[in-house]
Amino acid sequence: METVFLGAAIILTLLILASLYRVVGGPTVLDRIVGVNVVGAKTTVLLLLIGLLYRDVAMFVDIALAYALLNFIATLGATKFFLRRRSVRLEDEQAPSKEVP
Question: For 26-42, what is the mean pLDDT?
Answer without folding.
Answer: 90
